[in-house]
User: Fold these one by one.
Assistant:
Number 1:
Amino acid sequence: MKNILAPSILSADFANLGRDVLAAVNAGAEYVHIDVMDGMFVPQISFGHPIVKSIRPLTDAIFDAHLMVEEPGRYVEEFAKAGCDIISVHAEACTHLDRVVHQIKDAGARAAVALNPSTPLNVIEYLLPELDMVLIMTVNPGFGNQKYIPYCDEKIRQLRTMINEKGLSVRIQVDGGIKAGNIAHVAECGADTFVAGSAVFGGDIKANVEALLKEIR
Ligand code: DX5
Ligand code: ZN
């Protein structure tokens, strides 16, 4: 499976959001990672679907929404309609995770489940064949620019084994603390989809994207 870079616009310059999205995509990033925070599931509030709608016409890149929201089933249709191609919901935030996953698919988007660092993989064991992607949080969600949690290496390896043993082609996305210095190592653990916020939008976006892609191609 091809390795993909997913710049997190949480670290972009919101006054120049369109410009920053285009800089990342034109430099070779294939996903645009959209971090939605509700001030409940995580402490911060970021933005909602109107922002997605306003940047959607700029590019054909895959829009990858990461809903850090309590009971995200309440918003799935809105984000799909706004133009999100992939929607990730947290297992910890859904009382009825299977129902929400099918809600995403029924809305025409690809479904992903996100897991906090300490959440065990077995919560998605039965759902795995229904998923397009699993998002392994490699920091505690809520803020950009935190440090990668080392025990996630083992979790990524175990998920890779689980997916291979079941003969599935589910993507493994990692999110949090991914930098040019560790991205190749995380790829070696088994991840294939890499979110990077501060490592992309801190400084020269084009040079940053190229440096990250060089490590995983
Ligand atoms: C964290 C978000 C991340 C964040 C990553 O809650 O889900 O997507 O923006 O930022 P970096 O890459 O700076 O750790
Ligand atoms: Zn994210």
Number 2:
Amino acid sequence: MSVEKTLSIIKPDATKRNITGLINAKFENAGLKIIAQKRLQLTRSIAEKFYEIHKDRPFYNDLVNFMISGPVVVQVLEGNNAVKLNRNIMGATNPEDAEEGTIRKEFAESIEANSVHGSDSFENAKTEISFFFAKIELIV
Ligand code: CMP
């Protein structure tokens, strides 16, 4: 097992319902450490750039509109196999497919308002972390 970092975003549906602490407890209880965290209001251009990989998907515009509909909390999680572990803690993208006990099963409202984003690979985690954080902001 190797210690990794991964990017997490607590999405506007969750910040609006004031459940960021409940979500952070899921990460911490599963052994991930929050080594950086900040609350941001994304601009349209930042959200478009972050999700650029999805720009040809039919849900892209709605996704961007949703991600700027309220504050988000961007965070860096660290731990053994953090990328995969975080995806297990989050559950499937669509809450209808998510397993019991996962964040999306417990908290997500829909496939779009699905409470959290997490990097899907080690390489993407590096890119996504540097999108939002400077090295000096990661406090292990
Ligand atoms: P996320 O992990 O943030 O990555 C892209 C997001 O697009 C995804 O979570 C979903 O919230 C959102 N999305 C909306 N519709 C779909 C869809 N049909 N398939 C996949 N992702 C979708």
Number 3:
Amino acid sequence: MPLRLHNTLTGTLERFEPLQSGAVRMYNCGPTVYDFVHIGNLRSYVFVDTLRRTFEYEGFQVKQVMNITDIGHLQSDADEGEDKMVLALRRQGYEETLENLYAVGTTYADAFKQDLLKLNVEMAETLPRASEHIPEQIALIEALEKQGYAYRISNGVYFDTAKLPTYGKRMRHALSGDEAGARVETNLEKHNQRDFALWKLGGTIGWESPWGKGFPGWHTECAAMSMKYLGESFDIHTGGEDLKFPHHENEIAQAEALTRKTFARYFLHNAFVTIANERMAKSKQNFFTLRDIETKGISPLALRYLFLTSHYRSPLHFTWEALAGAQTALNRLEHTIASSTTDTGKISTIYRTDFLNALEDDLNTPQALAVAWNMIKDDSLSPPDKRATLLDMDRVLGLDLEHAKSNTILLSDLPERVRNLVEERETARANKDWAKADALREKIIGMEFEIEDTDAGPRLGKR
Ligand code: AMP
Ligand code: ZN
């Protein structure tokens, strides 16, 4: 079956056809590096990684670019409010200079890359930073101005949406009513309230430009950098669903006004991680980071597993119980790998086909996981064949099963004497009888087992 993906541009499932046979060029809207990312943001990048791995599994060569926003992303999508990075400097008591902005951006960009590595995400080939591409952005704005798509007002240069008949129509399948035309803020100097900033004048941190000292608009960064690294037309563009409008509509407007070519052919958007029925967001103070998860003794890869249990276009309702369940499931998969040490097994073609069919159906990862579990439960397959088939599937799942701690032992597989001690210790812990719990731990260690307490329960291994 061919790979089918849901394209926001048409609102339908479309057969994926690359521009260039055997190769995929993809751009992902990356993080704004003003703070640590939360697990909602991370869903976006694990989704992208699953997409990349699926392409690679199918034999495509992938060229991937993910931007790092370190200037120009204002508090409000409507070009108003303060720059999020400048606010971060203020929050940390730093002087508002370009050097400090760059340093703070580097700190959080590095932390972000660490998170991706812990989630076993394959790194994009290029991770360009907005502040390092100011000349490219100025050039793009100058070209738009030359072709009559930009005008100046007292606080900056704006894109003249009325000049582009397709404006507001590209993301129409994703928008309700006339959302595309309705912008709440008013700047009476703008020709049209939906016009957006290409270059903003003023601010404490800025660069010289033909229009005066200032900084580029957030939408300009992605248009300029995607075309620089991937060409005027490329295959795939991704982001969380909040980026459909205005961010992606505005990126398309700039690129297509300039080139008169299709910009990205497929736009893919992931739904949110929610908590208590609300979107997880910095501004709502209802977020967790990967550090919070690790502090509780849960593996980042359990979070990756949890992401895979829901389809990327469905909201994912985060709970600690669900994460603990994901950890248990991950332990079981690791155990399947560890229970056979021979590498001579054969990949089951039947299960491989089912697995691929699930992925080709708009990346149906819950179904792909179900295929993996059916395969594991199938008694007609030998342990080495199960191991080989699961390791093959893990090329897409990305759970790093090959390097799984092969000494993880399921509770049910422990010798009865040890299992009794573990259960006794859990009771002692529940009663807060720490002295007894410690004594039991020593006993367990004395029997050559190691025990680690996690939020998903005790994890046992052979010493
Ligand atoms: P930002 O750093 O705010 O630019 O966001 C980075 C990426 O995370 C964007 O693609 C957002 O759409 C996405 N994102 C933000 N919040 C969530 C959430 N709660 N769930 C899933 N994705 C999100
Ligand atoms: Zn972007």
Number 4:
Amino acid sequence: MNLNPTRFIWMDGKLVPWGEAKVHVLTHTLHYGYGVFEGIRCYRTPRGAAVFRLRDHILRLQRSAETVGMKLPYSVEELIEATKQTIRANGVEECYIRPIAYYGYGAMGLNPRGSPLSVAIAVWPWGTYLGEEGLEHGVRVKISPWRRVHSSILPPTAKLVANYANSILAKLDALDSGYDEAILLNLEGSVSEGPGENIFIVESGTLVTPPISAGALAGITRDSIIRIAEDRGIPFKEDYISKEKLYAADEAFFTGTAAEVTPIREVDGHPIGNGKKGKITAELQAMYFRIVRGEERGYEEWLDYV
Ligand code: PY5
């Protein structure tokens, strides 16, 4: 097990000891994937633990739920408070936060509404998702034979549990082929994103990321990087990225709560730029870490102190 347990998990309003935070094996979401979740991080700052863009993440949880016709049993305010309460109860500063809304035990037909809709929030210390080495030197990625779920099939803009079977297939294929991570194209053959990360490239000094309509999740790290780039005068545009354009990029990197800002050094055996962390990537990555750690005054509105 590579998970670091903490003391309590919030389950429908109660702080339950980690080892007792269990669900029935006939939990509806376990069988059919109809649930929504979030991934959030809390960082140590000079003024105590701060959750990065907490409200934006909880709002996205609510939007994901609405997108798939689920009505969360708690308000945004209640979930923000519950998240902070869980962090405090566990006495952790730097942690990953996983809220999930799931249909429990009560019916086994496909109609989930016969089962109760529950929410749980777990927190645990989680190092960088693609490794320290990846953060510094970049990861090697493979374009997946699996295409990103199309909006006519499942909503790629929602953090729907079922979507992650698509992500897992891409991830496993990349790992089994000796790569660190995958990139999924959409049905039209254009780059959408990683299994759990948005993607950016740098092309002749311009930062480019696919639009949400390419099948990408509206990542909060993506949004943060766009704002940081604009503040620093780095030219930016949203545009479709072909596989060939990606191979020929000067720089490329992933963004995500778990993956933070991770350089990509190779795609399908093609080195990106000089095969090292690019200059603009390094600048944005350093700035991102300074902001989440409360070292940049201009971005205080993104920090929610616990
Ligand atoms: N795209 C997908 C499919 C994602 O799952 C994620 C986040 C992102 C993009 C990036 O979004 P954000 O910047 O808002 O985090 N993935 C989760 C995370 O916590 C789960 C990873 C296992 O990073």
